[in-house]
Amino acid sequence: MMAGPASTRRAGQAGIVLWLVLMAAMAALPVPEFWITLANYIGMYSLVALGLVLLTGIAGMTSFGQAAFVGIGAYASAVLTTTYGASPWIGLVAGVAITVLAAVALGAITMRLSGHYLPLCTLAWGLSLFYLFGNLTLLGQFDGITGIPPINVFGFELRSGRHIYLLIWLMVALAVMATLNLLDSRSGRAIRALKGGVVMAESCGVNTARTKMLAFVLAAVLAGLSGWLYAHLQRAVNPTPFDLGAGIGYLFMAVVGGAGYVWGALVGAALMTLLGDWLQSVLPTLLGQSGNFEVVVTGLLMILLLQRAPAGIWPLLVRAVQWPFQRRTGSAPVAAELPPPAGLRAIRHARILPQRAKPAHGSPVLEVRLARKTFGGLVAVNDVSFSLAAGEIVGLIGPNGAGKSTMFNLVSGVLPLSAGEVHFMGERVDGRPSRWMARAGMARTFQHVRLMPAMSAIENVAIGAHLRGGKGALAGALRLNRTEEASLFAQARTQLERVGLGGDGLREAGSLALGQQRLLEIARALACDPVLLLLDEPAAGLRHQEKQALAAVLRQLRSEGVSVLLVEHDMDFVMGLVDRLVVMDFGSRIAEGVPEAVRSDPVVIEAYLGGVE
Amino acid sequence: MDTSIALILAQDGITTGAVYALLAVGLVLVFAVTRVIFIPQGEMVTYGALTMVMLQAGAFPTTVWMLLAMGLAVFIKDVWSRLRPGAAPAGSHVLRNSALLNLLLPVVVYLLARLLPLQALDLPAQAALTLAIVAPLAPMWYRLAFEPLAHASVLVLLIVAVAVHFVMLGLGLAMFGAEGARSNPFSDLRFHLGPLSLSGQGLAVIVASVLIMAALSLFFNATVAGKALRATAVNRLGARLVGIEVAHSGQLAFLLAGLIGAFSGILIGPATTLYYDSGFVIGLKGFVGAIIGGMVSYPIAAGGALFVGLMEAYASFWASAYKEVLVFALIVPVLVWRSFSSHTLLDEEEE
């Protein structure tokens, strides 16, 4: 017997309870004040690092500027409580509000940037805000603000570190729970899908710009919350703890702990805080006072860690804990299953999702008129026209480089047309983004499979059902989404079963064979309840029986009124399946018709086999 | 502000801008070839300037110790990768070359620094020795910190670059102390052109920057090594397939960046008081220029950096407290413009 996902989950829950008990015990027992102080800092740092895990590790956007958001939260409350005599709780609300506003403003500028622009931009704003804190008279310039009142909870003032300890760690625990819940929800899956690239997420109907902004604002709010706690713990603020160095430190924490893991934030914050404290006490006696050797050693350790364990400490910890169990229960599991998502656990609450009304059999679904796409001087698609009716399977074939995949990208809104029109369900749709196409009922797969390899197969399919739910991040974080999640996962399970992957739902998508990954993409596309299915080489990598099963699924869909447009090189598969063929060569349509006619068309034969000299 | 002040500020701006432009070019080069955002470029500047100060004071430059130590570390790494169990077989010339580069060269530099009458040397000789001490540190960092992570994501490389920056910062404090310093000016000449008063110092910086840019352009367009670098920048896999050793390209790019950084330090050393920790902000301003160039175009990056210098000069006149805010806020409109001008939805394929 190997450790199944259920027992892993129970072990995880036991770990969380143990952790909570330990943290609570620290407050009750006569632990030295120094430890409490360290724990307070670890807690406040954890909140910021948690935001970075969400932003950097999970959504794939790097920020060096989180310390600036901590500063905004701290300064907002500091000014309100000292200058205007407001309650710290008003300061909290205002601090979060200002943090959100700042994040939205900065995000609006930077979220659309990819790759290295964003981290560099965060460096810049981290620096700018630091100088701004230090120069504004309202904020006390570089001297800062003193005399900040303590937080008052039901008439009890949290004056000492020991008092505020419980509040800090209560917030950490709530933030961790909310983040875990969020990531296991509709919005959370959209955030996780960002790392797979914009194209895949948008093709499933995810508004990636909004989702990025969501992750960014959430990370900023966590940082602002930490700043609020900091201001009322220290009872004084000045710009130094919010400088760029601190921002870099937060990112180090997330990366050291494991940027891809919620618990990595806590591990990283604890480790870096303890390490920094230890180095500060040890190094001066070892190396003398003349240099700042703490940064040197920290830097060297970072380099070594990233070379040895780029995913951080948390996965190593998990493996170390699991190792004795695995040894006892035999060899390491070959196809490890992931723990079931909440929607699957609550599947008895599922309702049938409403389905789109399918167009009448034979009515026009897709019409491409003189579509043209040029890349510089290259004409990839040259004035191609074709159409598709409801309940029809059309094959788009042609030699390599004929422009088939470009045609797909034009139809699905991934690429803009250079000229021509695309009509879908009686509406002109060229120029619309691909998430709009998904909403209108067009779903697609990709020639190079685009899945989230670390997510379970069924969660990948659930991303496809994104548009069939409507609950937002708050509902996700508070678990007010049980019925919807259950319904989405019931739908995902149906589609997985339909393509023959019913038994593989909890496997990591990346561990599936290539052919199965293609089927998984089809299941994801079906979960969107499409009117038109665009399949880019669906049979590549499938075994003979799998191909037959796939053909059966597609025929079944056709009988339900779904139209299918497919690019495929496997002629046996295509000829036995499609109603019509469109043949492309060098960007132009060279033939169209029923398979038998196309097969004997001399132009087609010449395109595939070359002319007779 | 009258014309003469405006002109003085313009001259200041162009002089510092020229140095930022050099840094921007170095950053773009390293990024294009290795995908590393070379944050420690700023430390190369301070190391260069402060080593020069030490030489001119006749003191033994402490940076030589760092050169010896890092050379030894790289050599040990090479020996280990040859001798560890399961190592790929390689010719004996690998270790010989490594010993020459990482042991002999630092020792020669050490002997020169010990034996030469440092203070009495003329300016070019002092500059050359400074470059020989500081510039090799960059490729050595590449070998130690970045090469083992050649396939890691840009984020991981960026964080390693920040870590290297911290290490160099901490060591900088130990080597140079917390005091700021200025090196001797190159010339006390002043030229008078109508209302314009040009300092020989500023002119020297501008001329040197232009010459370096020209030399780089020649290197990239007319030499095999330069073309190999460009090929690596365009497509790493393709470069490998035509026989370019990507690791060599990386080392070369870092060496060039090290030379550019250290030389920039020598150029601005006489004009500004530099502290061990001044490098970061200087490097970042080079970045702002590089960002304007989209991290890909050398001329635009250089032009952007020049603009940053001008902006800084005028900002320090009008609102000196907000100088840094203004300079870094400058990226915002640039990024907005960039984000609206690039409209491709297709992701870059994963590397």
CATH architecture tag of the largest domain in chain A: Orthogonal Bundle
Radius of gyration of chain A: 28 Å
**Strand residue content of chain B:** under 5%
**What count of domains describes the coordinates of chain A?**
2
Enumerate the spans of chain B where pLDDT stays under 50 for 5 or more consecutive residues: 343-351
Q: Rough shape of chain A?
A: elongated
The largest pleated sheet of chain B is described as: 2 strands, antiparallel
How many strands of chain B?
A: 2
Mean pLDDT of chain A equals 84
Oligomer: heterodimer
**What's the helix-strand series of chain B?**
HHHHHHHEEHHHHHHHH
First CA to last CA of chain A: what distance?
67 Å
Main interface: chain pair and counts: A-B, 51 and 49 residues
Can you walk me through this structure?
- The complex is a heterodimer of chains A (613) and B (351).
- Chain A has helices spanning 5-28, 33-58, 66-82, 88-110, 117-135, 161-183, 186-193, 198-203, 208-234, 244-257, 262-287, 293-308, 313-328, 342-345, 404-411, 434-440, 457-464, 473-477, 482-498, 514-526, 544-559, 571-575, 595-599, 602-609, and strands at residues 145-146, 151-153, 156-158, 236-237, 364-375, 378-389, 393-397, 419-424, 427-428, 442-444, 532-536, 563-567, 580-585, 588-593.
- In chain A, a hairpin with a 2-residue loop joins strand 5 and strand 6.
- Chain A has 2 domains: 21-319, ABC transporter involved in vitamin B12 uptake, BtuC; 364-609, 3-Layer(aba) Sandwich (Rossmann fold).
- The termini of chain A are far apart.
- Chain A is elongated and about 85 Å long.
- With 613 residues, chain A is α/β, with parallel strands linked by helices.
- The longest helix of chain A has 27 residues, at 208-234.
- Chain A contains 24 helices and 14 strands.
- In chain A, the strands form 4 sheets. Chain A has a 6-stranded mixed beta sheet with strand order 10-11-12-7-13-14, with helices on both faces.
- Chain B has 351 residues and is mostly helical.
- Chain B has a domain at 34-276.
- Chain B is built from 15 helices and 2 strands.
- Chain B has helices spanning 3-34, 41-56, 63-83, 93-115, 123-134, 137-146, 154-176, 200-222, 224-234, 236-241, 246-268, 279-292, 298-318, 323-329, 331-341; strands at residues 190-193, 196-199.
- Chain B has a two-stranded antiparallel sheet.
- In chain B, a hairpin with a 2-residue loop joins strand 1 and strand 2 (196-199).
- In chain B, helix 1 (3-34) crosses helix 9, helix 2 (41-56) crosses helix 11 and helix 9 crosses helix 11.
- The longest helix of chain B has 32 residues, at 3-34.
- Residues 343-351 of chain B have low confidence and may be disordered.
- Classes of the chains: A alpha/beta (613), B mainly alpha (351).
- At the A-B interface, helix 5, helix 8, helix 10 and helix 12 of A face helix 7, helix 12, helix 14 and helix 15 of B.
